[in-house]
Specification:
This protein is mainly alpha-helical and 178 residues long. It has 8 helices and 6 strands. The chain folds into 2 domains: 64 residues, Arc Repressor Mutant, subunit A; 70 residues, no CATH class. Helix content is 50%, strand content 12%. The strands form 2 sheets. A 3-stranded antiparallel beta sheet has the order 1-3-2. A 3-stranded antiparallel beta sheet has the order 4-6-5. Helix 1 crosses helix 4 and helix 7 packs across helix 8.
């Protein structure tokens, strides 16, 4: 995976929406065409493309987007498959990698400690930005079901229900795990 800075405040829905739209137009298209189809904020699409590329879902070259094999599987997979696969993929991408490794060891990270760790990624300019980044990061972790959050205690916890599956698994025709 790339070591570019992951645009954490692009939501999983934006990234998966991009992947699904790209799949619906045959798996490849000019970014401008995707922009016309989606009619989203002009600032959002480049960040969604960056996130999808860092996650290995698309390739972007000279204005052209193309789904990767993983991107196609995720566009056509069940939500259960997508969340499980995304959970495995983000484990290899910062800032998720460091946070999840820490969570594996410590079994709990308090919100303040997590926010201190996020400061090292230069996603923020002030406390309000840091709160937004925290919320965005949490949306990725919860969507991919790799962590859960105790709102009463303000702590991040491992998702004990989710277990990792080996890479290279086979998907069934329904897109679910075999």
């Amino acid at each position: 995976m790339s070591e570019r800075r992951f645009p954490v405040c692009v939501s999983p829905d934006h990234v998966m929406g991009l992947v699904e739209i790209l799949n619906s137009v045959g798996g490849a298209a000019d970014a401008e065409r995707i922009n016309e189809i989606t009619d989203v904020d002009a600032d959002l699409l480049p960040h969604a493309i960056d996130a999808a590329e860092i996650l290995g879902l698309v390739k972007f070259n000279s204005g052209n987007l193309r789904l990767t094999g993983l991107g196609k599987k995720m566009a056509e997979g069940t939500i259960k498959y997508v969340k499980r696969e995304l959970g495995d993929v983000i484990r290899d991408v910062e800032p998720f990698r460091s946070i999840l490794r820490r969570l594996d060891v410590e079994r709990m990270i308090e919100k303040d400690e997590l926010m201190d760790q996020l400061k090292g990624y230069a996603y923020w300019e002030d406390q309000e930005d840091l709160e937004k980044v925290f919320s965005c990061l949490l949306s990725w972790l919860l969507y991919a079901q790799v962590a859960k959050y105790d709102w009463d205690e303000d702590v991040l916890l491992p998702n004990s229900v989710r277990t990792r599956h080996p890479r290279g698994h086979k998907a069934t025709s329904s897109g679910d795990l075999a």
